[in-house]
User: Fold these one by one.
Assistant:
Number 1:
Amino acid sequence: MSLLHPAIFGLGLAALALPIAVHFLFRRRRRPEAWAAMRFVLEAYKRQRKRLRFEQVLLFSARCLLILLAALALARPMLGADGAGASGPVTLYLLVDNSIAGDLRGEGLQGESALDRHRARALALISGLDEGRGDRAALVPLGAPASGVVLPPSPDLGAVAGLVRDLGLTDASADVAGAFALVAQDAEASSGAGPVRVALLSDLYEGSADTRSPLASLPSGATLLSPEAPSSGVANVSVRSIEPLRSVLVSGRPGAGGSGGVTQAVVTLERAGAGANAPESVRVRLSAEVVDELGRQETGGVTGLDGGDRAASLGEQVARFAPGERSATVAFAVDLSALPGRGREVVLVAQIDRDRLPGDNVARRVVERREALRVGVVAQPRFGERPAIDRFTPGDWVRLALSPESRDASLSARGREIEPVDVPAGAVDTARLSGLDAAVVAEPEGVDATGWAALRSFADAGRAVVVFPSADPAAQRWLGAFEQAFGTGLTIDPEPRSAGGDEGGRGFPLATREGEAGVGGGEGAGLDLFALIRAELPALAGSVTTARRLEIERPRAEAGLGARVLWSFASGAPLAVAVRPGAGVGEGVEGSPGRAGPGLVVVFASPLDLGWTDLPARPLVVPLVQESVRQGISAARPSRLGVAGASLSLPRSASSVRTLTGPGAGATEPVREGEHRPRRSAGVVAALDAGGGSLGAVVINPDADGARTDARPPGEVRGWLASAVGDEERLVSLDGAMDASGRSERDPLAGSGLAAWLLLIAVVLALVEMVAARGASHASVARAGRGAGRRGFGRGEAA
């Protein structure tokens, strides 16, 4: 049993001194007076003394008990939820779900949100606490990552209630496990001896109740309040992603024509809840917002293409779900070359109509539009006219593959989408690489250790490096310096392997089927550079024969390498591998930077040399080299995509971040070592260097995983919650303490109230005491005696 108002009970105990004082004060001895008739009175008193003393003790006890019951009733004793013997000030931890799931509305789209209901419940629980008793409350919002807005708990209940009222929504998922860890840590460090109550205020749909994440154990004796887990889901459609086929689009110089600024964007939708078994059509709109670099520096804003606040529409499609389908996709043709504005970066925005959970109805993606790509060719520069093909060097073949139109001298360099820039192999340094988007090392034997280090720094800045072997048939001595600088972890035999009798004189043929090509391997997610040409690769690869190649060991998934095989020989040996710089740190590569980051390296097994392979003279060489460069540039860029609630990865040279859209637009915050604090709201930010120059825009999308509105089995959720308190008996349902209107009838942790019963007993006892006191006073006997005396005296006078 516990008391809501122990101070009142203490005053009641002090009040017991009153009847005790009265009892003893009126029992003082009086001086006896001799009186002859007193002998008969004393004889009668002795016969009645035991009964009179019993009556006095009974009345005294009844009066004390009456005061005690009244004090106990006013102190409001409680039995039940806190367990036997629980006493002292209550500590209440409020875990309020303000995640993206808190935006879930009722049947009417304008109805109250789930967060409104959670706030009302939190305020009802706070109102059941007593500041006079020393009760405290803490507030831990669940929007990832969970953080203590009020932690440790505060005795200022009014201030906590004000923060609950002001609690806003986030676009992140619910971090229930993180919140429990915070509560467990604080409760363990707390010295309070009173009961601990933890109220989890969430709807507990699949997006919030991640039962795969273990919960921290709460202190022994703590009680967990939570609503009942739902038995059925709520219909909802979310925008999962928007994926452009190319994230860097090249439109060509003005007036050059071409369709380089055209791409395709695929929007993926996902639905959940009760409506997933029925057909459904959802309208999807795609628009674009141009990030104006000048405007960004001055105002920090994302402007509409027409100079206003509206984004330019790129079209509208209808996504159709078949019965039972959970996901659907629609494709949009996007022509960025036709968009006005000077900005190089465009934010694509995919949006659906408003539904019961509007927080997940939009997704964004940044794409770049460029007039041309500048690619350095690390080889001996070529001066004058090109020689005959049989005298081409590897550098000549690379230049030709990058700009095949350059064979026509009448074409102006203005029309090139890729501009080759000569970088002498023996003079590779940071200055020469500055301003390039990618580098193709065609003659690696001429690059020294300093040059490889400069190329590594170039890659770390979010650039792509494509490396071909040396055309020298001797051992590839450059491999040691290359691996020392890049730390790829790839195993490459420096001795070239020549085709022998085993190949029947056909050399090393390329794979002509995708399954035979062995695409994949390792853990190189996002490194599929040949995805757009994969359908054509088998037909183009059939005519290519290779007489000599390097043996590259296929990366293994268990090796932890961020690598991917792009295409293979028919034997399964890799032709080209894409790998992140620093991916081989786990292999103990000395000099590697410590972890894989941005940047990309593509390593080929054969050089562009007719002595090794006839690939340079085949049509395959152009798409192979161009896709390695174009898609490599896109894949090498630091991530332009973030998720609300997760850490934001930025370029390593970023020193600050400016918010372009969303809460706090225009504000600038510092960045440390390329990592920025998690942002709980969706929007667009710009990474800035030390001089305030833009390093690129980054979009932060809502966490669609946190918006999943399917229902998990209630027993699974209850067991998950019970693991935090050790026993399901320590779980108290919030729903059981709510009436039909949703208002709290009582404090669900207060237990059974005894005040009303105690008051009733006190009233009955008071009535009994009044009757007993009147009977014990012998007033009727006294009146009868006085009447008899008066009657006798009268008769005597008459006599």
Note: Residues 387-416+463-636 form one domain.
Number 2:
Amino acid sequence: MSLPPYIYVDHRLPDAENVRDVLEDRTLTPFDEAERLERLHRVFYPVFRVTVRYESGEGRWFGSEEREDTVFLDGLWADNDEHVSRYAEEAGRLLNVATGDYDFGDGPGLGPSVLLQFQVDNDTAGDLIPERVADWARQRDAGRGDQADVFLRKLREKYGLPGEFDPGGFDEVTEVTRVYLPFWLAEYRGETADHAIMLAFREPDASEREFERHGWLSEFIADDPTRLAEYGYDLSLDRVQKQLSEDRSNDGQDRTPDRSPDRSFGGDGADGEDGIVQPDGVEMDAESLVTRQVERGFGDVGGMDDLKERLRHKVVRPLEDPAAFEEYGIGVVNGVLLHGPPGCGKTYIAEALAGEVGHDFVEISPADLTSKYMGEPAQKVQELFEIARANQPCLLFIDEIDAIAGTRDGDANMNSSEQQMVNQLLTELEDASDDDVVVMGATNLVDDVDGAIRRSGRFDERVEVPPPDTDARREIVEVHLAGRPTAEAIDLESVVEKTAGYAASDLELIAENAARKALRAGEDIDESHLLAAAEELDSSIPDWSGPEDAEDHVEQPDSADLNARSLVDPDPGIDFDDVGGMADLKARLEETVIEPLDDPDRFEDYGLDVLNGLLLHGPPGCGKTYMATALAGELGHSFLDVTPADLTSKWMGKPAQNVADLFAIAEANAPCVLFVDEIDAIAGNRTGGMNTSEQQMVNQLLAELEDVGEDVVVVGATNLLEDIDGAIRRSGRFDERIEVPPPDDDARREILGVHLRDRPLADDLDWATVVERTEGYAASDLELVAENAARTAMRADAHIDTDHLIRAVERTTSSLDGWTN
């Protein structure tokens, strides 16, 4: 699609030269003096300006006033409505500008300016508010007044509708106009160029608060930088995901405008008019089980970024074209078992996944299957899968699967009906592999599921749904406060910190109780009400012990606020045999760390200390974390991996306490390898001095290094030794300093082999040439080379050969170019 000649914008940005001049005099990122502006793009974000006519007040029969209001809807259909709606109030007269005045480059996302495409037409955008009003009316008419009120609060909040908006008096959408919100998007990098920070803004001299206001856009792009190309004009079809979407559309299977998250808050569930198929001879009611066109996606799941990314990688992308992804070893899913503490959103995540992939959602619980009549449960299992197959593609979610097929001490403890049900479930799981049915089970503990089901091969992917993380807790609280009177300056950070380890259901109850407290006091809800409610409510999942803990056991010290389960891996899963090449590095670690720990008495006899602290240093992307993990595996130790983000806090003194908690967890789970990644970011060499909190953290780290026991091996990692605070380097705990260099020839061959394993390779592949051409490449670069070669070969429908790899090398610049240690 070509660029439109003219577009409407709501704001005129300053020119690039002026922006660069102003930014040069400001420090806007944690990189401080090392901050450098890498790229500057002018991004035009699309919105629909929708004018809504309605009658406010009690309804049109009581002489209420007719009103019109204007709202902004997300033109990308990517669930950013709540963010873009905030710009509607300040939008004045629209400006008509010529796209020819801007440089959009030779391809999407490549020029100084990027114009993002609208993803749906005006009619679809104009239908959105009327559809939501109809959803509200159905809930009201069904007698679900409380749900209708909550729905209305969320409707107003998400789309920026005023408090006076009365859906009962809704008349019509009178106008839909395409408008662009222009922003500057700056990409900053630090000294080593291995981390990037994006900032979105309109005026370069604006306050930091104004920068934060536009932070949603920088997060949206930073979460997936390919979105500039994905949504830009003249889309490149190089990307697998876009090509697969095109293929699906060409096959006539395009079910929705896109795969983006849903744009509503739920409705009445399945509607018989939605085309739900009821198989012949099946007594179970398909209409009560199947939800068509799930109106929820990952955009509605607050926080939990690691969980969502794992599901995207393991489930979403392979589901789009399982044959291609299986052949090229990029990942195929056969079935997913969600596990984790109760009340933390397994059902919510499952439904969001269905919406993300555009599948119908079939939800079943034990109550739907069990029966007092002999043989009937097995019959219901069969009917359930018949319904799923009749309504494919779908995601079949079996909640509390352990209650249907739980662990029993031998088949003798099952009655005949239970055994028939498990056997039928095994049969259906096996047959479902030939259908477009994704089977997802949910349980609190994996070990509670019958062994035959776990070994069936249909639940190879097991994904933990942990208690909500910081971002998720914040969003959950915000959702349950929406539409309620809250103080203008309410600070949720203390509440979010206080509720670490709480389930999502606990947070809903806290918000409810806080609202009651504020109502009794005749006040708006503020953090004092929330904190009081949190104090009165214990977590419903205290000392939660998940499946990893049940098998390998992770100790959570009573004194530590840090979550041990999120930091400790009892079984690292790799050892030195999994590290290709790097013989000198492994030999040195064997000599300096492993041998003394294996035979401490012998070393003591010769007056040699047992080394239990070292610094790994070297260029980024060369495997320091991987090597530390392999060291833990070689020793048979647990692995405790911590980053600066796990320790830093804006609260005075909190970083020091986090350091103390970290070492308490290490001691409780000894023997272990405590790996402190980017230790220079925690205790860096600062020429300008430290603030009080930073000094306390360094002092605490020094104290812990001095006192830590011999069964805790402390490994720090940094790119440059001189970046570490002098006091830490002189502490005596890091006398052994080992360089992790770029991969040698053998290592590069091994790394490429690992990333090309199970992918179709040409028989005559010239490994020597490929290895030679990748000299000076980091391990992370080699992974990218393998990935790019696989994608090129897949587009050509060919085996991966030398030419594909060499072309991938030529397109992949080494991240170590210019690196000096």
Note: Confidence is low (pLDDT under 50) at residues 58-63, 234-273, 545-551.
Number 3:
Amino acid sequence: MSSARDDFWTIRQVYAKLNKSQLDHSKSQISDAYRRLTERVPEADSHDIGDEGVEEIIVTAPSEKYQHTKLTDPKSYIRLLKLQPSQKQELIVCELNEIGLEDSVEKYDALSYVWGSPGNDSVKIQVNKGSLDIGPSLHCALKNLQYTDRPRSLWIDAICIDQTNDWEKNCQVPLMREIYSNAACTVCFLGPEEMTTPALYDMLEKLAKERNLMAIEGDWSEHRSTNALDTLPAMGNHLPIRPLSTDLSKRYVGDTTILAMADCSWWHRAWTVQELILSPSAVMMTGRNSITFENLCAAVDQGLDTQIWGPVFLGFILNPIVVPYLSIRVLINHCRHPQQQRSPAIHLLNLLIHCRHRKSTNPRDKIYAVLGLLRHIFPDAMNLESSNQLDIELGYEKDVAYVYRSTCQEIILKTGQLDILGVCPKSYLTGLPTWATDWSITDRIGTPLMQDSLDRVRTTHATKNTELNARFSDNGAHMIITGQELTSVATLAKILVTPIQDTAVFRRFLDPGHPPKYSSKLKPELEALVETFEPALLRALSWWTSSPTHTPFPFLVDFQRNVGINTIIACYIIYYWLLLLLLLCKRVLSIQLTGLTALREALPEVYSIGNTFLFDILSSFTTLFAWESFAAAEAPKNPGIDSDDVYWRTLCAGTYKKETLSQTREIYKHWFSLMQPLRTFLIYFPWFKEHFPRAGIAVYMYATWHTYGEFWPYITCAYERRMGRTENGWLCLLPREARVGDVIVLVKGGRMPLLLRMEEGRRVFVGEVYVEGIMNGEAFDDGSCEDFEIR
């Protein structure tokens, strides 16, 4: 079980390595600058010199633009790109030829990459005898994929499919499954090489080798997570039963070079997950550095099991470093080990939910990009002659709202359930009904209540497993359902917002390859001084807190040996205030060069370092404490439940350990007691939250020094929702968009109660509701049902 002590030790190692890296980086920069000044070495002219000092040969692209020729049959033929070799920085030259799909097996490598923003400057390449404009990201990939001594056959969607021909795209996109399955290898290009890339790939290869050796030499399964990587919420519990300790774990703990890989857009695109999963062999590539996906998995799993990287921070914040990787692993497990008793429609819904956070340039691809995966699981899913077939037709000429609405309608009809309504964020897409999902929205929303907080399918059914009676108007704009109106919303509490660790923010402050940006008001000379002096001081601070041979404080040698929390907090405060003093001195020095304006702007900058992120974390606590007060203000009247249990059972949305109430109650009580010091602190010192949130975090870490408790994963369903009370006194979890006066309805065939609102004389859908005491049909009366038309 993780604790604040574990997180503190990891963070301590992160900053120790960071300070050394920044110091080395600064020394290198200054040495290079000094050498140029003393030796008067001119900087290389990029227009004259190519790689390794070879004079660049400039080749102009043909003036005539390349035009794709029609494929013999777009449903059975594809184009392959032959990338010509090059030893110099010259124009990329390619040949494009068609080949039968059946004849192409293992004759090419497929490329998986991120297209980039449409507004980016294009780069010309030569295709056959014409020129073709491609994006900078694809140009970078081709440069790194290019052999020096032989051609290379590739399949690249942006070139091998005529992107100006919607009819051809409609024929070729359904072939993606076969194209990536037939490839000899899929190269997943993450981006250009950065300063830390070689060290990162070297670390990953060593971790993979260590993992594979351990698997050969002995049984180490006891160290592995108790939770299989088959659910997204459960990935937060990827904590070893007994963490491994190896030479590499001691060497790499706190390493931040993996941030560069985790921050790549490739992990967050709609198409890339299909391209990876459908490939028999995949290679991850950054610049010219590469590692097989199999070895990447072994390396990251080893890092997780040895706690080089932890999936959760402070007990409840998902670590963005590992989330993209784990989400891919979840989908791989779903596709390779499907539950065959489920229908294609249910699998499609699960795939769409798991890929909802992924982005696509064309919003229609949020649907189309997962159809290949669906056909990988159910080959006949799109076969019109199959009994379970889905009537989803690809069409890039179709309106986005129509694509989303018709897909939602098909899933509702084929599943006979309303579970898809749990994935309906507020949308402003013209023509999209409120009951249809806008898949282009990637913002964080509440977890669909079809599953509990541990991502287990609910066994309860609010309408006693009745049959769905959903109908749709001729134009598809309205859905007619049959249900029973229960009560309306009377009062609302605040929204429990999910605290998010932003990978980009992490990189800005932690990645030595991206040193912090200083104020433009600082003169270059002073900026160089600060960039040299600051890492040196930070390294000195690291030295006296961690050096096993030179520190004058022996009790700080090993943070794993029951170091007193008061000592740790004292060291942390000294470290933090020395850093602030240094930064303040830096800004004060700039007054001599920039005037009093710099001081006025510098003080808030220094004061607010990290405050925004920590303020957001404390806001989660204050919201939870406000919910406690909200629930205690009036005894809940939920049917058949002890009023003392209603709050915590609502908070966890009916998620119980091994389906046992008593065990879960004890877990909650322990967690509640752990929060008491912070709860008291925020009551007596509320202004600390806004002006000095670090103090609140220190109190929380003090209280959870030995354990965070087990209850945090149980409240996953509460995030992005708000607590509420109905007119008849029920305590409930409501969607974040809920308003006073909204009506709670039980709909025949629906697993969850729904929240409806009257707008302009018509009902609209707001979201799902959790009401403890009525979730298994206790309040449902078939005889009281009536039709509701939702637009």
Note: The chain has 24 helices and 19 strands.
Number 4:
Amino acid sequence: MKTTNKLLSLSKEHNYFLIKTEGSDIRLYFLTEDIFRLRADFSGEFKEASYILTKTAWEDQLDHVLGEERERIAGIDVNIDEQENQYILSTSTMHITLQKDVFSLMITDVNGHKIHADLAGRNIQQDHLGRVYHYTELNNDNFYGFGESTGALNKRYHRISLSPKDAIGHNHSPQTTNLYKHIPFYVKVDGDTGYASGLFYHNTFESEFFMGCERSGYWKEYNYFKADGGDIDYFFINGPSLKEVIDRYTYLTGRPILTPKYSLGYIASTMYYAELDQDCDEGHFSFLEQGLDEGIPTSAFQLASGYTAAADRRRFVFTWNHKRFPDPKRFFETLNDKGCPAFPNTKPGILLDHPLYQDFAAVNGFIMDAEGKQPYVDNWWGGLGSFVDFTNPKAREIWKKHAKEQLIDHGALMLWNDNCEYEINDRMAQCDFDGIGGVAAHLKAVQPTVMAKAVQEVLSESRPSVRPFVLSRSGSAGIQRYAQTWAGDNKSRWEDIDYGFQCILGMGMSGAGNHGVDIGGFTREKPEQELLMRWAQAGIFYPRFCVNSASTDNTVTELWMYNDVTPQIRRALQIRLSLIPYIYTMFHKHSQTGEPVLRPLMFDFQSDPNTYGIADQAMFGDSILVAPIMKKGMTERHIYLPAGCNWYDWYTHERYAGGQWITIAVDEETIPMYLKEGGLVTWTRDIQNPMKDHTKVLHLSLAPQTSQHIYYDDDGLTNDYKQGRYYQLDINVEYDSVCEIAVTPEGDYPTAIEHFEWQVINVEKGAYWCSLDNEVIPQFMNRKQFEKAEFGWLYENSDSTVRIKYPNNYQPRLLKVSFEKFDLVGCGED
């Protein structure tokens, strides 16, 4: 066992501090005032070769691979105070104390509050098998993130395994189990102070976290991280807010993609339609038509791998079964014309008798055996196969060539990377590692991330103006900058709604919030009627709203499969479609800061400790609280409304004080939504097809408080927004007896918005007057006349709302709504 219990010396090198201990040298880099890196390399080599980091303060052997994705930063200087028993290194926001004997690291904020502390005497270790450990003190802490896993949202007292597998039929249960991703990052929230911080372990070996689930009478309560190899190489990310931690983590590992608009509606998929004996293309077209007949439009279609099936049903990626799909080009063009593009399934395993096997073998494009002499062979779907090595640039180019010729040139706008967990039994199998050379144990976790990068590249190279979109089942830290993800092959069970919801929240707290689970479940028997209804009603708040199935009872999960609940599901989908202006704005913010679209209540209400343990409610964006019905047979729902503001029922505008539990009655129509005081939600009635339809009348629902908001839009399909072709409204609200709303447009995108209609809520009184740019707006007392008018205002007593409409003149506007006291009778107060 190698230990780091004695600090022998500390010296300042070129851009880092070198800490010498009895067991390992340690390097300490300060990237920003709030991010530092500590790396203990027991080999002493300190080689830098990362596919994950987009910000570095050092030369990296893969700089040329990441290219413009990576930025070299200078790092910062810090103050050093050497004392008899310790060193104190200080930034403007935190102090890092290094105890000399016994060596350990402690972090405090500028007020002296302890944020983090290693477990002295046991902080960083390496055992005789090369496994590395990092022990930290456990206090009254709550833990969130860890990438994708089952189990409770708060991982205190949980053991989390990061060992991606093809986890079909996984159990969403209170216990945490591994799924498909490898993201060794978590956020800690101090239960006493609410202070948030993050730890990201830059290690791609299979790993485990033990978050207070071990106890020993010889040590303080502790957590620890363990990895099968590599270094203890972590980035500490300071808060104190959760928003700052997620922002800084995605600054370090890459900002999420901005998803195209067609991905925001109902994404349909099933293995069944691609497994018909013939004319599967017509089956897909018929599905779309039936959806329109049912009032449930489809926005995109995931094309299952049956299109690549040979006569014996084995999958041969980049081939076509022409009996099932006679004309692939016609198939894609037809769907694109309907505003419902398809993204075809691809898999990185190549069967030994695949016609393209030798293309990859000729350039050593497969992961090689432990001796590096021949392709590694292991179990694959349908037989034995080899795995494309995406760390080999030649293999990437071959993959891109076939993806272009067989899929993109036929009309595919996006691709679906499936079964890419690289479940390789021989951990010593060899990978190219872009010429560096490495083993599968180290690199299998990043293979799907580099695969997603390659697919994003070929989509962009083939259609430079079109926004690339990739869906990936697996990935490492950094996958968010290439792909949308989902939690794989779940079951059709009630438990999977609840814990699937928590899984999405956990991914959002891991910097990869563009995530979802298969609505209705992927495997097992068909979902029962109530289960499908409730899952769809919850799923409208998922970042990815998708129904995908491979049921074991020869059925297909379709949103209209049960006549009795189709109206309720139709209504739920219409809520989502109406909110696309709001959702797309939130996705744009997600792409800029990492802020998840669907996030735990505590993300926005960190000062309210009552939110720390709530995982069956969430904030949908920054303004809407949602509390889906996720239990069978519920007749009432208990809902917590966080402290710090009032809340308004989305449908009735009934007002509730924050900081309390309420109980509401539940029926089949119930989809609880609450508008936050100070919140703004943009919505429309104009969108049924997100790819083809545009907002002409933008509704803006405001629960007024002094606040700032942004509405964002662009064409939703191209990269033109990067050149300034977007439409943004900067909205500043000043609330007093007169509510002043300043709206400033920005950007060069020719918006389709012709009219604005505001809904300004005030449950205490109606408006006295309204003005636009200091000109009085005419008041209507007759609702029908107001509906016909292009300009005017009306007070709706039924939901306590001032409705104001006016045409878009594409200029800055100042809207005022007076709630001043007016003594109509002139008799004064009683």
Note: DSSP finds 14 helices and 54 strands in the chain.
